[in-house]
Structure formats: structure tokens, C-alpha cells
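Supplementary Methods S3. Complex input for the iron/sulfur cluster-bound model.
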Amino acid sequence: MLSQKSKDEIQALYRKLVEKMKLTPRMGQRVMIAEIAKSLGAIVEDDSEERCNDAGIVVVEAGTGTGKTLAYLTATLPMAMAAEKKLLISTATIALQEQILDKDIPAFRENSGIPFKFALAKGRGRYLCLVKLDKALQQMSGLLSTVDLFDQAPEAADQALYEDLLSSYGRGDWNGDKDRLGYEIEPSQWRHLTATHRECSNRRCEQFQNCAFYKARGELDTADIIIANHDLVLSDLVLGGGAVLPAPEKLIYVFDEGHHLADKALNHFKVEIGVRAQRQWLKQLEKALEQLITQGGIPSSMMHSIRTAPEQIAECQQALTFLWPMVQEMLGEAERLRFEFGRIPEELKGLLQNLKTPLQPLLQCLDKLNEALQKSLDPKEEGEFERSVAESFQAPIGILFSRSEILWDGLIWLLAEEAADVTPYARWMSKTAYGEDWDIQLCVSPIRVAEQLRKSLWWRCYGAVVTSATLTSLNTFNQIAIETGLPKWANFQKVVSPFDYPNIGTIRVPKLQHDPKAEGYQEEINNWLRDNINLKEGSLVLFSSRAQMKACNDVLYPEWRDELLVQGFLPKSEIVKRHQEKIDEGKGGVIFGLASFAEGIDLPGNYLTHVVIVKIPFAVPDDPLQAATSEWMESQGRNPFMELTLPAASVRLVQAAGRLIRKEDDVGVISILDKRIVSSRYGRLLLDALPPFKRQLH
Ligand code: SF4
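Predicted complex, serialized as C-alpha cells:
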């Protein structure tokens, strides 16, 4: 239970912040602080100071204007510091991360008087690797030749750039963070300068003490608050937790924009194997091993496995030679082919098994070789390879080892068969770009990440807050709980909004002849927009299909040339900026946008007074994960439309409607041009999940 002392401290802190920051105390903000503090206060620790009871996880839906960041900082930081845990704040978008890092946290530190430290955590791919930089420079001067086995030798023209980077890092003018460079560096240049986890020899690296990534990583050890993004947190969890960030047991997580957690997690647990791409790295491996053998000095303990590796590579290549025509034939002209119930055909399975058999000893060989090369780089260890050999080969072998691991994982999941009572995996193949050419990828993904998150996150973390303006769908937390595996005992709260919705906004459903599936719908929409958009105001028209947005644009752009800005022609931030400039100049502006404009766009006051939602935003039916989930639900006699499609559409609709009111004195109208929202039973459920605006339904 929350102790009286903690309660008093948090209340005093809130009063202080309100006074110093001249804020208006808000009911929703207070409730949010109280609920977070109550949940974290209920944590019981075991002897190793880890949470050992069903408490400490709180899910708070708090709409725009609540002041969420201040609420969770006020409630969590004192409790984290008292428990000697770190607070990890994770966002889904860079925009919110920047706002928290550059504005909210500095303001909180200044006004709270709490002397805490904070640091931004980034993946290692954002940092300079001194070893890679040194190799690139050596290769340019002809001193090293192994890196060219990837056909990606650094360009001679970049030598001056690389030398510059080395000196500015050496002088301490630059900390090795790509984002702090002050200018853009091309991905093709940067890839020679940064290391993946398999290329990095970690503590064994001679440059470990000077390493930009490990220096930044070290700052996390002394920080009280770590700011990260969902992708980094999930990568860390996939690596077992504690690899890049502190271990979950030592953290109180705050997942802001928590509604993205499940989608992001699905991406991290998905494996994709390009058939041609496999042939490519196997060729590179063959070349690398040939060079290694030619170089000599292979330790006797490794001789047998390295000498037999070419045979295994040849067997893998042969399996891929048979696989390529088969997948081409299966896919035919289609872009994607999903396997029903995640079951791949027997003939395909046979070929994948033929690939897996020789891959196993090859993987073991690469694991051993990578370890031996890493050891040989360590001045404190007795390595089996000459240091110069290890320096040339460790990074390329590290990359090849990591590719073999991905292939191995993919094959394991592609070939696995789930028991009848277990949620199946989705399996599909799809056409994809491959350099100038194309490839066919075999893909496998869980359709739910609930179990993975439960085991890697919720069971392990010291505490967690999940928050967003839209966590409920159809007015319940069921969907997010099912998708993310949040425990049933978590504290789910929806806090009241500070906005007086019935008096500041109206939802209008105009009388239309056609529903979205009817032939005359497009023309009717064009006409409605022409007649009802006030070109002297700020309007946002949200489409759920690119084709429909284009169709409206084709008709209306000639008439609205001065007012209209359309997604796809300019970056999102530029569209917002130009729109604001128009309104500031006293003109009107109209933005046409898709799903990404329904979220994260902040156009307060006059910038936006009319939001038009053209169609109920149902998900694209051909998404393989959606399709696999629907199929699985149907097989269980469940209704995927009511359980899956509708709740997801509800979340998107609430997000779209949320663009209108950003501040207490905002006013405006939301027009929904889809008559199904009033004519169908499910439409009423969607309407009732929207904020309580005044309604004009026809
Ligand atoms: S520790 Fe790893 S990332 Fe850092 S310089 Fe060495 S190899 Fe590169």
C-alpha cells in the first residue's frame, strides 16, 4: 500500500509544480497521479529487491489536455528513486520523444527541485564504431582487403569525410552520435562506420574504453530517467532484457503512446527470409572462408569444421536452387500468398528441411569461429588466431554469423507446427525489392505478442505505466489487454477529459445517398467536400485509402490549388508548417491525409476547426496478420469483425476525432461521410466511443 509519507511527498510535489509552472490543477491529472502512485505503492519486493506480487502495473487512458507527462513524472520519479530503480520513458514517435527530452523533463527538473539525471538511450546503430572506421580507412589505403567480400567497399571519395569524423571524435568535438553530427550522412557511408551486435567484440575490443556506444551506455548507469523508444525497448527484450538497457527488474517503465506497443512488438517478433538474399550471404561466406584458409594460421581445433563448411554451404545453396522456382511458382503473379492456418505445404517444408539440415553444423562452425576471433582480439586473452587475422575477419564473420542465425530462427518458426489449442503463427510469402531486382521472402510472425510480452516484460519489470490518449476501444480496455498480454490484475483507468466536449464541438453525419461501397459514392464525396469545406478556415480531410484521396485530389486540386496540401507530395512536418502559415496570413487551408495524419498532428485553435472523416477506418483486409487472426477466430466460432476489426476501427476513429480539440478554448466540427455510422448497429457503437460532442445525425 502507498505509504502516507510517499503520498504526502507526491502531493507536495504536485502543489509545488502547479504553483511554480503556473498551471491550473486538473482533475484528470490528479487522478492519474493518484492511480499511478497507488499501483506502484502496492509493490512488494523480495530479498533481491525485485517485485514479487501482482501489483505495479497501471494502464491510464488520458486524453489530450490532461497533462500526462507531468502526471507520470510526478508520480513515478519519487517512487522510482525511493526504490532505487530507474525510470524508463518510452515513446513510439520521435516527435514526442523530443518534446519530453527537450521540454518536459528539463521543465520538470527545474521546477521540481529534484536533482535527477536523465539520458537518452539509442541503439548501437546510431553510434560510431572506431574499429569499423579504422578498417574503412585501412581499406581505402589498400592495407586491408577482407571487407570487400560484401561488395560494399567504402568509396575512395569518402576518405576525407571519414578522416574528418575520426579527428572530430578524437578532439572531443563530436561524441560519435550520428544525430549530433550537425549534417546528414548517407546510409551507404554510415554503414561502414557502425557495428551490429555481432560485429562488436564488446569488452574484448581494444577501443572499448573509447567507444562512443559504450560511453553513452555508461551514462545510462548513472541516469535516474532513461528516455528511449518502443523499438529500442523491444529489441532489448528480444535479446533477453538488459542487453542494451538496464534489466526489466531494475526499471519502472512508462510507455507513452502505449497504443503502439503491440504493433511494434509484432514487428520485432517477425522473421523474414529472402530466398535470393540467402544465396548472396552464403556466397560471401564461401569467399570469406576461402580467404581465411588461404591466409593460414587456422587453429587445429577449428580446422575440421572450417574445411567441411564449404560442403555445407554447397548443400544450402543447392536447397535454395530448388526452393527458388518452387516459391516463384507458388506465388505466381500475386504479390503475397498467405498459408491458411499458418500451415505451409509439405513440398515446401521438405525443401526448407533440406536447407536446415546443413545449416546446423554451419551455424555451429560460425559461432565457434566468431568466438575464437573475438577472443583473439582481446589483449588479456590467449587467442588462437593471429591478431591481424582476427582484426580482418572478426567483423565480416560476425555479420555472416548473424545472418545464419536469422535464417536458422526463420526456418525453426517456418517449420514449427503449433498445437491445436495454441494461437497459430501467420506464415506467408511476398514479393519484395532486392537491390535493383526483386526477391521472394518467406515470412513468419506470431499473430499475438501477448505471451512474449507477458514473459519478457510484465512478469519481469519492477513496475510499468502504459498511457495514451487512446487505449480503450469501444469503451473497454479489452483489446489492448488481449493484444499486449497485460495482466488482468493491472490497474486500468480512464481519466476525465478537461474539455467541455458538448459545448465546444459537434459531430455531424450528413445525409448522403450512397454508402462507401456504392458506385456513386466517390462523386457524392467530391461534391460534398466542394460544397461544405469552408476555404477560409482550417480543415483536415482524413481518408482511409490512398486511391480515394487521389480521386478527390484529382477533382478538387484544380479548384483548391491555393488552399490544398496533400500527403505524399511533401513531408508531414512541411505540410503542417505551410498550413499554419496560410492560417497565420488570414487565409484558409485544407489538408488531405491518410492514417498517419489521424495521429500525432497538433493543429490547435484556428489552425483546425473542421475534421472530415471520409470513411470508417477499417483495417486493410489483406494484411496477413489480420487475415490470419480472423481465420483463427472464425475457426473457434468467434466473430473477428466484432472482436478485431471493429475495436481497431474504433481506436482509429477516436484518434482522428482527437485532432479537432487540442486546447480548452478550441471549437469545431467533425463530419463523418459514412452513413454506416448511423445506419448500422456497429456504427452506433463507434459513435458512442467518441468523445461526447453534440451530435447532428441525419
Ligand atoms: S566496442 Fe564494439 S562498437 Fe565499440 S569500437 Fe569496439 S567494436 Fe566498435
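The two ends are 51 Å apart (CA to CA). Residues 129-131, 195, 200-202, 205, 207-208, 211, 213-214 surround iron/sulfur cluster (CB under 6 Å).
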